[in-house]
Amino acid sequence: MFRNREDAGEQLARRLKHREFRDPLVLGIPRGGLVLGAVLARELAAELDVVLARKLRAPGQPELALGAITETGRVYLNHPAEEVLDLWEDYLRGERRYQLGEITRRKQLYRSIRPAAPIAGRSVIVTDDGIATGSTMIAALRGIEGEKPYEVIVAVPVAAPDRLEDVRPWCDELICLLYPRQLWAIGQFYEDFSPVDDQQVIQLLRSNPVVSPST
Q1: What is the secondary structure of 5-52 as a DSSP string?
Q2: Using the 8-state DSSP alphabet, how is residue 201 labeled?
Q3: Which end of the chain is more exposed for a tag (fewer CB within 10 A), N or C?
Q4: Splitting the chain (215 residues) into consecutive groups of 10 residues, what average pLDDT does each group show?
């Protein structure tokens, strides 16, 4: 159990503190992942930025992810969703359009604060407040794979064990503090899981200096 996202970030930072990195960059998945990302960036003397990916919600069950989408529009579907794609094709088309619109809105807002950090040749740490289905994390990792990072490390406080195995092939290293056999919701492992809004994300991005990567 974590007190809040800051506490989870501090515990993750202790696991990473003595590791060597090359021009470290922390990418948080908005919005909750930015809170952990800010802690990791501070403790690891790393640059902080966002990686934009959104889950595709199931019909009538907005907390259940069918998959996720990157800012380039690339879609990753969970295996069960792939099996019924024909039934949900029209719904997914509309959901994809909606989530891509939200990604575009956030991109315009966040990039007005700071430009996208360069990724090539750097140690990239991708974080979120937890992994339930793995789809958003995988979409985020697929979104940066073409940027040629030196290495990609996924660091999360809690995740469903079977979903970790889905994420593992997309990164060089995976660090997870809790992997309970039953995970109904990420928030059940936090005493305080208050929503994070855009203004908090903006403040966190502003508080972390833009770092010029080493040559």
Answers
A1: HHHHHHHHHHHHTTS--SS-EEEE-TTHHHHHHHHHHHHHT-EEEE--
A2: H
A3: C
A4: 97 96 97 97 97 89 84 81 65 91 95 94 98 92 93 97 92 96 91 96 89 49
What CATH number should be reported for the domain holding residue 19? 3.40.50.2020
Which structure tokens are listed for 23?
Answer: 């021009």
In a domain, residue 175? The reply is yes
Q: Strand ranges (DSSP E) for 128-167?
A: 151-158
**pTM for this entry:** 0.90
Residue 212 falls within a domain, yes or no? no
**3-class secondary-structure state, position 98:** helix
Domain assignment of residue 213, yes or no = no
Domain hosting residue 181, numbered range? 5-206
162 touches 182 (CB < 8 A): no
Quote the tokens at residue 189. 């492992």
